[in-house]
Design goal:
Elements (H helix, E strand, L loop, with lengths): L4 H26 L21 H8 L11 E3 L9 E3 L11 H16 L3 H24 L4 H23 L5 H19 L5 H16 L2 H26 L8 H15 L1
Antiparallel strand pairs: 1-2
Helix pairs in contact: 1-3, 1-4, 3-4, 4-5, 4-9, 5-7, 6-7, 7-8, 7-9, 8-9
């Protein structure tokens, strides 16, 4: 069902806001090899969890502690010395990247025309998926917290759909898909063909796709392979050779594209 331009504009604006207030902090916090961080990587000054001032600085990509009014000596020139302001220290992902990515994902989901519980599940994946795509591209990891939240959100929304009239039979396909996809990918992980983060994420995405039908699951898995393959080619070209396999972005983009098209 098509939506009005005004509604789509609101969806894009909300996506920008969520990208700034939720996705950007998540990407900053989890773009480390293990665990998470709350401090500036340059000066260890706390950025997250210390109030709105520091939070606003993160949105502006600045550390409140080490950016302002620092000075460095100028090279002697024309018989004198002096100082000039240091450029602000940049922290977090690139300017507008989380905001634009999240806005595009939210706008695309809303424009595709789903409604109700399915729309809520797609938006949940779109927001968390935007964060996971950027984190995986940066440090090749899918944090347990985000994969767990993705799975929990999809499960709760599918149960909500069942409770509000669709019946418990709507959960049968997702349950079967979780078992099949999870089992196959676990075996692949044993042979180091993909990472455990991918194994934890893929079953919940399969559940979302299967809730829309077996054909949607088939095309969704196929799209995930295609996007994952293209991502691998790009990464290999940028690295100049073989790279460690990671398929998070391909899994997320493939699932969202097919789920949105299937409606």
């Amino acid at each position: 069902m098509p939506h009005s331009p005004a509604l789509l504009a609101v969806a894009a604006a909300l996506g920008l806001a969520v990208g700034a207030l939720a996705v950007r902090p998540l990407v900053f916090a989890f773009s480390v090899e293990d665990g998470w961080r709350r401090s500036c990587p340059h000066c260890e000054h706390a950025v997250l969890g210390v109030g709105w001032t520091a939070y606003a600085e993160l949105v502006r990509r600045r550390c409140h502690n080490c950016s302002p009014v620092a000075a460095v000596p100028l090279t002697a020139g024309r018989g004198g010395t002096g100082s000039e302001p240091v450029q602000p220290v940049r922290i977090g992902p690139a300017a507008l990247l989380p905001e634009v990515l999240t806005a595009a994902a939210v706008w695309g989901i809303v424009a595709a025309g789903a409604s109700g519980w399915l729309l809520a599940a797609q938006l949940w994946v779109a927001v968390l998926g935007s964060a996971m795509v950027l984190i995986d591209l940066r440090v090749q990891r899918l944090p347990n917290l985000l994969t767990g939240l993705t799975a929990a959100g999809i499960a709760l929304l599918l149960v909500g759909q069942a409770l509000t009239g669709s019946g418990w039979q709507v959960l049968l396909r997702p349950a079967i898909a979780v078992g099949l996809v999870g089992g196959v990918l676990f075996l692949a992980a044993l042979y180091e063909l993909l990472g455990l983060g991918d194994v934890k994420l893929a079953p919940s995405l399969a559940a979302l796709l299967a809730a829309q039908g077996w054909a949607t699951l088939y095309w969704g898995v196929l799209a995930q392979f295609v996007f994952g393959f293209l991502q691998g080619l790009v990464q290999a070209a940028r690295a100049g050779g073989r790279v460690e396999p990671f398929f998070g972005p391909g899994l997320i983009v493939g699932a969202l594209v097919v789920s949105a098209i299937a409606g």
